[in-house]
């Protein structure tokens, strides 16, 4: 879900324990594992496990039997699978179309390595998405494909942010190798068991019926919450509003709602607008505050217009906070969306 990867990485770097509840690990999602397999193969041409996953996306008419024959041939030649695929025309046991498909795949991977293999991970990722036409492949899957593409955009944004916070001094490994090593570590700890004490991460659907003293709803921006596709219909927007109500009423004492003036989407830093749901909050309950202007986005700064923080008036920036007492809870119940 939006922002989850950045949140997990920030918590891990800060040494804050956390757990993820009710969601598939981000790094276990099919589309994420597929793209990371391509990156691993670019970083290490001898990674046979990455080869076997990557060559299946998209489908190339190369089945298990053909891959078994290629594996046998690779062992005879004492070569990794990718190197064997480069000389597939010599594997006469394979059908002509399979030999052509293997050679084309090897050319694709090697071409990406030659062009951008030593570049930042986000550059490698964007080049792979381009040459694979990965967006079209995923969007062809319908509604589920849209969600998968959003996960890919989140992965790209994560790679871009990684380059900004990781030092490159005195490192032997390439940036891509270091990024993949950290992704593997995150995948290992990004589980639903996690730590019992610390921050709990979950979707709003999972949070229904639960309550905590402190709740944070992040990513309160139009296009994220509500989702961009929800704005296409009244029903979609109403469902997003109901989910927002669910999130707000999970807080027993303190509620923090945050939005960013700029956010990475698909690897690009873009200006953002506060969620329309923020403007629907009772102004007298709002304590609007702002964090530092570290985004580096030029242009007009917009507040969301509901704040009554110190100094009065609309203040640009980052988050809304407030405490719920009995009267606040009653007001929230009275304004529950239908």
Features:
disordered C terminus, alpha/beta, Rossmann fold, two-stranded parallel ribbon, PCRA, domain 4, 13 helices, 4-stranded mixed beta sheet, 338 residues
Give, in spatial order, the strands making up the sheet with the most strands.
Answer: 3-4-8-7
β content, as a range? 5-15%
Low-confidence stretches: 294-302, 306-318, 322-338
How many domain modules? 2
Radius of gyration from CA coordinates:
24 Å
The top-level CATH class of the largest domain is: Mainly Alpha
Cα(first) to Cα(last) distance is 25 Å
Q: So, CATH architecture of the largest domain?
A: Orthogonal Bundle
Instruction: Report the principal-axis shape.
Output: elongated
Would you give an account of this structure?
- The protein has 338 residues and is α/β, with parallel strands linked by helices.
- The longest helix has 23 residues, at 143-165.
- It has 2 domains: 26-184, PCRA, domain 4 (Orthogonal Bundle), CATH 1.10.486; 203-334, Rossmann fold (3-Layer(aba) Sandwich).
- Helix 12 (234-248) links the parallel strand 3 and strand 4 (251-258).
- The strands form 3 sheets. It has a 4-stranded mixed sheet with strand order 3-4-8-7, with no helix packed on it.
- Helix 2 packs across helix 3.
- Helices cover 46% and strands 11% of the residues.
- The protein has 13 helices and 8 strands.
């Amino acid at each position: 879900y939006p922002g989850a990867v950045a949140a997990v990485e920030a918590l891990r770097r800060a040494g804050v324990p956390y757990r993820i509840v009710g969601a598939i690990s981000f790094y276990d999602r099919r589309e994420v594992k597929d793209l990371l397999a391509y990156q691993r193969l670019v970083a290490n041409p001898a990674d046979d496990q990455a080869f076997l996953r990557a060559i299946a996306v998209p489908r190339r008419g190369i089945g298990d039997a053909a891959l078994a024959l290629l594996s046998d041939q690779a062992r005879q030649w004492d070569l990794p699978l990718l190197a064997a695929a480069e000389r597939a025309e010599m594997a006469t046991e394979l059908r002509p179309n399979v030999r052509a498909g293997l050679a084309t795949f090897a050319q694709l991977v090697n071409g990406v390595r030659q062009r951008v293999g030593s570049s930042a991970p986000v550059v490698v990722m964007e080049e792979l998405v381009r040459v694979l036409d990965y967006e079209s492949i995923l969007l062809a899957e319908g509604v589920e494909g849209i969600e998968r593409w959003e996960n890919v955009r989140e992965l790209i944004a994560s790679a871009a942010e990684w380059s900004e916070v990781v030092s490159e001094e005195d490192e032997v490994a390439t940036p891509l190798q270091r990024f993949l090593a950290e992704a593997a570590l995150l995948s290992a700890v990004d589980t639903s068991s996690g730590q019992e004490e610390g921050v709990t991460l979950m979707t709003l659907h999972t949070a229904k019926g639960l309550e905590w003293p402190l709740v944070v709803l992040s990513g309160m921006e139009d296009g994220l919450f509500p989702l961009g596709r929800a704005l296409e219909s009244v029903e979609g927007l109403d469902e997003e509003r109901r989910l927002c109500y669910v999130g707000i009423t999970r807080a027993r004492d303190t509620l923090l709602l945050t939005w960013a003036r700029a956010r990475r989407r698909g690897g690009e830093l873009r200006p953002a607008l506060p969620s329309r749901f923020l403007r629907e909050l009772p102004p007298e309950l709002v304590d609007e505050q702002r964090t530092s202007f570290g985004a580096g986005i030029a242009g007009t700064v917009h507040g969301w217009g509901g704040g009554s923080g110190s100094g009065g008036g609309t203040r640009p920036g980052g988050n809304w906070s407030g405490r719920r007492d009995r009267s606040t809870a009653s007001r929230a119940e009275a304004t529950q969306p239908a």
